[in-house]
């Protein structure tokens, strides 16, 4: 049995800049998000990154599981954002950072609302934001799972059909630390805009990379499905849907399924 290290290695020096304070690398964790939330309770710095080579209980959006075999990039970033900034923009900010980082490698990445990063129409990365609100401050954990060097045959058949592995797409493996560094630098850049209240700049950046606007979609909201043409996002990152009735409805959360191109 290989020995699984539970104590992290501090690999901060190559990453500390912008909003990044430290990077802790684990061999294996249940979930990097859970570990980051645990560290937050113990007072970890804003800008702490928890990285794992694999996860045994990776968490996805809407209570789903995030399959996390070796080869993927799995990390969570703990932040204590200023209370003035609209938190609903953070998942879109994170997606913008990941998509921009992939474009830095020449990979054409698009964003499916709110924060799935697609390459070639398939999911390359998913983002899960979890909040811990205390009377004095809000802690946000942004978890990113990127199918970097994942061998898709390691994923279940259901997930495999919707996923893309960057190594398989590009025909060569990637250096995980290098890619993490590029994503964190991009994130710091956009997080600076977020903290400065530059919502419109983030909104424009997201729109430029949107895969969703212009399509007719079905959003599975907590209250039930809503169908309409995705026409815009607002300054909070909420999706504006033009319903068949002609009414424009603001959708704040949900799973996005494409029905067709155009209205
Ligand atoms: C999604 O469902 O699309 C979001 C998936 C988020 C997965 C990442 S992997 C790193 C971090 N730790 C987790 O348990 N989940 C997130």
Strand and helix map with partners:
Blueprint: E1 9-10, E2 22-29, H1 32-41, E3 48-55, E4 73-79, H2 90-104, E5 109-112, E6 116-119, E7 122-133, E8 138-146, H3 157-160, H4 166-170, H5 176-195, H6 199-208, E9 215-221, E10 224-233, E11 239-242, E12 248-251, E13 255-261
Helix pairs in contact: 2-5, 2-6
The structure holds biotin.
Biotin binds at residues 31-33, 55, 58-61, 64, 66, 74-76, 116, 126-128, 143-145.
Molecular structure report:
The structure is a single chain. The chain has 263 residues and is α+β, with helices and mostly antiparallel strands. Helix 2 (90-104) crosses helix 6 (199-208). 24% of the residues lie in helices and 33% in strands. The protein has an eight-stranded mixed β-sheet, sandwiched between helices. The protein folds into two domains: 9-208, BirA Bifunctional Protein, domain 2; 216-258, SH3 type barrels. The protein is globular. Biotin (BTN) is lined by residues 31-33, 55, 58-61, 64, 66, 74-76, 116, 126-128, 143-145.
